[in-house]
Amino acid sequence: MNLDDEEESGNIIDRRGEGGGGPGGFGLPIGGGGMGLGTIAILMVLGLVFGINPLSLLGGASGGGVGGPSIGQPQPAATGTAPASAHDRFVARVLGTTERTWAELFPAQLGQPYPPPKLNLFSGRVQSGCGPANSGMGPFYCPADRQVYLDTGFFDELSRRFGAPGDFAAAYVIAHEVGHHVQTVLGISDEVNRASRSLGQAGANALSVRQELQADCLAGVWAHHNRALLEPGDVEEGMRAAQAIGDDRLQADAGQSVQPEAFTHGTSAQRMRWLRRGLDTGEVRACDTFAARQL
């Protein structure tokens, strides 16, 4: 991506070093549902990439359920600081493009103003409005405080572990999390949470898949309206990233049998398809995964 002329967002909060002690673990609020260690490992991998707070996948102490984050203590007030490195400036510029894009699309396509989210840079661990998180959980969006959380080392993990290098792949991560913010602003996330509470686990997982695929599509909508910034090979980078983090691919790579009823984000093919749909159309209304008969 060519972001040289893009403005850096002022909605970056640098919270690195705040947690201290490195990426140590913390007590996961796992209930007494008979969840085995293998299942927990799979959920942690699924929560690692492109989703909401992984604590919600494990069922938090304050409501849990897929798509329903555990509400923890509000995070300490933090003050935005100027990005210090080229990597930080890249994040700030990508976030700036999402702010510009959605500020234009919300009035034009949705008839309302767009309130941009804050993006928290952290390392090791962080306290969010959805509870504590550590670097092993990857990027996530917290609906409770309407903020994005990004460990700065995740993009190396995306490249090395998942074989999805490139600046557009990294930008796709940010755009996907901002897609969850769009869903929250539009009331979609609340509707999914309410519906999930009345369903069994399989039904809640199926709703989560539709929510995640919609965030992929919204990331594609963002990319459509920023085509002038794309360089040769960028779209392919995004598709490789979407393919690498499909539920079927992650389960197989973890040495597990593929279990569709446990999917929470969608298959590789589905994630690529909905990212492409948003990229091709540039229309929010094209991203209605909840009405789609076939994902």
Walk me through the structure:
This protein is of the alpha/beta class and 295 residues long. It has one domain. The chain has helices at 37-48, 55-58, 86-110, 154-160, 167-185, 188-197, 201-224, 234-244, 247-253, 268-281; strands spanning 12-14, 51-52, 118-122, 125-128, 131-134, 140-142, 147-151. It has a 5-stranded mixed beta sheet with strand order 1-3-7-6-2, sandwiched between helices. A hairpin with a 4-residue loop joins strand 6 (140-142) and strand 7 (147-151). The protein is globular and about 45 Å long. The model is unreliable at 20-80 (pLDDT under 50).
In helices, the fraction of residues equals: 40-55%
| Tally of alpha and pi helices | 10
- Report the major sheet: 5 strands, mixed
Unreliable runs, pLDDT <50, ≥5 residues?
20-80
Strand order of the largest sheet: 1-3-7-6-2
The fraction of residues assigned to DSSP E strands is 5-15%
- Order of helix and strand elements from N to C terminus: EHEHHEEEEEHHHHHHH
Which class do the helix and strand fractions yield? alpha/beta
| Alpha-carbon Rg, integer | 18 Å
Task: Give the assembly state of these chains.
Answer: single chain
* Terminus-to-terminus distance: 29 Å
Shape type? globular
Properties at a glance:
single chain; 295 residues; alpha/beta; 5-stranded mixed β-sheet; two-stranded antiparallel ribbon; 10 helices; 45% helix; 9% strand; globular
